[in-house]
Amino acid sequence: MERGARMGIEILESLRDADLEHNFTRSFIPLQNSIQLILTAILSMMTTLEKYQQCSYASLDPMLPVSDTQMNYNEYVRLKARVELLQRSQRNILGEDLGTLNSKELEQLEHQLDASLKKIRSKKLEESAARIPLGLSWGNNGGQTMEYNRLPPQTAQPFFQPLGLNSSSPQLGYNPNMGANHEVNAATTAHNINGFIPGWML
Description:
By secondary structure, the chain is mostly helical.
C-alpha cells in the first residue's frame, strides 16, 4: 500500500516536472523571439547612428564641396528669415506687435507711414484731376446739352402797370402820363410780390 502510494507520488511529480518543462518551453519561445526583435532593432539603430555621424563629420570637412542639399537648406533658411521679417513689418504697419520696437524703429515706421500717405493722397488727386476734363468735355458736347435751373432774365419794364386815379377809361400796359416815381414804385411792387401779380390787383 505504501509502495503504491509512493509510486503514485513519483508519477505525479514526474508529470508535474514534464508539465513545468513544457510550459517553460512554451513561454520561452515568444520571449526568445522578442529578444531577437529587440536586438535587431538595436543593431539597426546603431547602423543609423553610425551613418548619421559619418554624414555629420563629412559636412564639417572644409575640403569637401558643398552639396546641392546644403545649398537648398541655406536658401530655405534665408527665405524663411525674410518671410518672418516681412510678416513682422506688415503687423507693425497695421499697428500690431509694437511693444518690441524701440523709439528709433517707431520713428522709422512713422516716417514710412507718412510717405505712404503722401503717395496715396497724390494718387487720389491725380485721379480726381483726370476725371475733371472728361466731365467738361461731356457737358460741352457740341452745344447739345440743355442748361437747367436757370431763371430767365427779367425785363426792365413791368408787364402790368397800375391805373391812374383820375383816368376815365381802363388802360392796360404802360401809361406815359405817370411820373418816373410811379414807374419805379410799380416796378418794385411788381417784383416784390411773387414776381407776377402787382400790388394794385391784390
